[in-house]
């Protein structure tokens, strides 16, 4: 799933390539992806792209006349920029990976695609990003929150710190991958209870959040959309590295699997050397 650094980079790429271009048309090929109907997609025709912003993990393509194409790429979605399209003919609705195509006046544009069978990519055409339910519920941006705000938000929702970090209403922008990386950098168990963190642990967690996200943004911005996924993988130390050695201590990276997700961690760095039980109702290691 694209998280804060990747969405920031996609926004930077669109600002560099698409700003100043007029929208020729917006084609919706997956009806389920479009979550709004007023204004209709045709309202974007002839509008100029004036900015590309980010709200948590939402990408906001800003058009003149106060119109916003807000996109959440979900787990398997992506943005593919095309310098040109093979055909000028409108796409036909179907079962392919393309959910939305935006054609620009210079012949370029971008596709919003989604792999797999679970179609959760969401696109909204609105006059105010706050009209998007997910945007309206976002907590402070994880990269922008100062220590006091960060600590208040974390302690305000009691639970396992892994889940708290990925709760977009607490702090926005962090997903499954970077929460693993942040907790590894902070040397905290993913099952540590948020309300029990000491002031010292909270300060370390805040600093780890800033360092991990800042580093990921610096490596991502400037990349083409096609290379962002590879750049993300290259910077990971524990996430998606089950069975490989931890680059900090050399211990084997372990995994806890859930119904539809998993987390990775280093026992030596994070749980005092004790592995976490790999089942949904694991006993907490604090």
UniProtKB/TrEMBL annotation:
Protein family membership: Belongs to the FPG family.
Pfam family, one: zf-FPG_IleRS
UniProt keyword Zinc-finger present: yes
Transmembrane region(s): none
Sequence ranges assigned to domain Formamidopyrimidine-DNA glycosylase catalytic in this UniProt record: 2-94
InterPro entries reported in the protein's UniProt record: FPG_cat, FPG_N, H2TH_FPG, Ribosomal_uS13-like_H2TH, Znf_DNA_glyclase/AP_lyase, Znf_FPG/IleRS
Cofactor(s) listed: Zn(2+)
Domain spans labelled FPG-type: 237-271
GO BP annotations listed: base-excision repair
Name of the protein in its database record: Formamidopyrimidine-DNA glycosylase
SUPFAM superfamilies noted in UniProt: Glucocorticoid receptor-like (DNA-binding domain) (SSF57716), N-terminal domain of MutM-like DNA repair proteins (SSF81624), S13-like H2TH domain (SSF46946)
Organism domain of life: Bacteria
GO MF: 8-oxo-7,8-dihydroguanine DNA N-glycosylase activity; damaged DNA binding; DNA-(apurinic or apyrimidinic site) endonuclease activity; lyase activity; zinc ion binding
Species assigned in the record: Polymorphospora rubra
PROSITE patterns xrefs: FPG_CAT, ZF_FPG_2
This protein's record includes keyword Zinc: yes
Reactions catalysed, as given in the entry: Hydrolysis of DNA containing ring-opened 7-methylguanine residues, releasing 2,6-diamino-4-hydroxy-5-(N-methyl)formamidopyrimidine
PANTHER family, alphabetized: FORMAMIDOPYRIMIDINE-DNA GLYCOSYLASE
Keywords assigned: DNA damage, DNA repair, DNA-binding, Glycosidase, Hydrolase, Lyase, Metal-binding, Multifunctional enzyme, Zinc, Zinc-finger
